[in-house]
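Cross-posting from the modeling subforum.

Setting up a comparison between two proteins and wanted a second pair of eyes on the formatting. Protein 1 (sequence, then structure tokens):
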Amino acid sequence: MLFPKKTKFRKAFKGRVKGNATSGYTVSFGSFGLKSLEPARITSRQIESARRAITRYIKRSGRVWIRIFPDIPVSKKPAEVRMGSGKGSPEYWIARVHPGRIMFEIDGVSEEVANAAFALASAKLPVNTKCVKRVV
């Protein structure tokens, strides 16, 4: 699973995912991209699960790019712990995804295969998505 090697701070504020994507909203590397249509926090497990679904469907022909990276730690307190006594320890990593962000890209496969692979990946993600083509 993805997570940063090193961060400046161990714990982060929750923050909000508001507004549209200001970067990463065009297909840059491949021919087809999976675009997010709503804001969400996507975990590293969800990213890995979607990546596996895509690579298994295309049977390792073509190339896959992951355009999002989970660099924000989410802390959590253990079950049945009393209020107070500070913030919990970091449990997992998330990526904040804004509407319009390209999350995955594929190249070297047909449009039908790309659409089907992205449909499988979309089922693993907590956002509505659509498959977009590279504008030449």
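Protein 2 (same layout):
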Amino acid sequence: MIENRVRELRAKYKLTQDELAKRTGVTRQTIVSLEKGSYTPSLLLAMNIAEVLGERIEEIFYKGEEKG
């Protein structure tokens, strides 16, 4: 499972979900799902988010614990 710090970093840079969505070429619902952990981004989306937030991909996305 891939976990992320998108919500935390988006807030740090004072971006709304809608602003981040527009700047990365996805819908606001995609950002909502990503922040809730119910959506795993493509590599391209992860790269775009990292670029917009000015962070390395590894600082935003990381491998979480598997449940089960």
